[in-house]
Amino acid sequence: MSNEHSSTDLTVSGAGTSPATFQDPGMPPHQERMADKDPAAAKRAERQVVVLFAVSVLGTVGMLLAYFLVPSGDTVESMRTSNLLLGLGLFLSMFGIGAAAVHWAKTLMSDHEQAEARHPQKSDPETRAAALAALEAGAQDSGIGRRGLLKGAVVSAVALAPLTFAVPLVGQVGGDWDVSKFRHTLWERGRRLVRDPSGDPIRAADVTIGSAYHVIPDGLREGEHATHWIEEKAKAVVLMVRMDPRDLTEAEDRRDWSYEGIVAYSKICTHVGCPVALYERQTHHLLCPCHQSTFDMADGAKVVFGPAKRPLPQLPITVDDEGYLVAQSDFTEPIGPSYWERLK
């Protein structure tokens, strides 16, 4: 089959058929919108666009008020409320601009179909002048020049929207950048392992093979760290499991870090810091739900799958005189993901 195209017709020929010629159908007839025919409809669409831009402005203002007046605090409830208000404000700010732009384009801007023949990429001066004139005509047709309220709404929304990102970023300038805090947690010699969140101490004899415990340090909300207990908890959370000692593969210098098959490792993933708490008893694998990094609890919590590059830090444990599980020391390496001053 061969095709010959011209500006006026298309000729098609094939085996056993006679050549057929038909006219180029061109563009379909233009259908006017309500706003094109009815000035009242155009005014109504303009008001709707303004309302959407106003929603964006209110979302930006609301987000800023939430940022300054509703801090995250130290409780789960305050964090949830702060994040909800910040997220809602950010959503309204971005959604208002996007919805207004789409509605404006569909109801008020020119929707006449345009067709241009292909031409060399470099245009002559006359063509460039014509293109500039077309752009100016399009801007005039959009009504931005004669619709002052609409112009003010779009300028206000677009000007204020970046504050939803800039203010939180600027608020971090001069903040606490002491990364050495990640090198230490509340764990220390003799501090008991207690259940999270009840705070009940754990007796080694009560831990059965195959069981897993979410663990925090005893006295988390007491003493000098009481006002920042949630930050301390975020660093010190541990997952403790018990398995048959014969299944354990331990480095020579860590053979006394476990107790009769009980091992404890940081719950903070070494990839980006998500909590790893999905334990599979049969394989002794611990899975991070964020990016599927998988650690072998029976072999030093080494990485067996996923993007994490380092094993989970192990908490050395033993028992006290009453048979309760206690830490031998703090973690011997920083917990969590990498940062620029980390040596390993």
TrEMBL record:
It is found in: Cell membrane. Residues 30-41 have a biased composition (Basic and acidic residues). The keyword Transmembrane applies. It is a multi-pass membrane protein. The chain crosses the membrane at residues 49-70, 82-105. Residues 262-326 form the Rieske domain. It comes from the Bacteria. Residues 1-41 are annotated as: Disordered. Keywords: 2Fe-2S, Cell membrane, Disulfide bond, Electron transport, Iron, Iron-sulfur, Membrane, Metal-binding, Oxidoreductase, Respiratory chain, Transmembrane, Transmembrane helix, Transport. Its cofactor is [2Fe-2S] cluster. One of its GO terms (molecular function) is 2 iron, 2 sulfur cluster binding. The keyword Cell wall biogenesis/degradation does not apply. Coiled coil: none annotated. GO terms for cellular component: plasma membrane. Residues 1-21 have a biased composition (Polar residues). PANTHER family: CYTOCHROME B-C1 COMPLEX SUBUNIT RIESKE, MITOCHONDRIAL (PTHR10134). Iron-sulfur subunit of the cytochrome bc1 complex, an essential component of the respiratory electron transport chain required for ATP synthesis. The bc1 complex catalyzes the oxidation of menaquinol and the reduction of cytochrome c in the respiratory chain. The bc1 complex operates through a Q-cycle mechanism that couples electron transfer to generation of the proton gradient that drives ATP synthesis. Belongs to the Rieske iron-sulfur protein family. This is Cytochrome bc1 complex Rieske iron-sulfur subunit. It comes from Actinotalea soli. The lineage of its organism: Bacteria, Bacillati, Actinomycetota, Actinomycetes, Micrococcales.
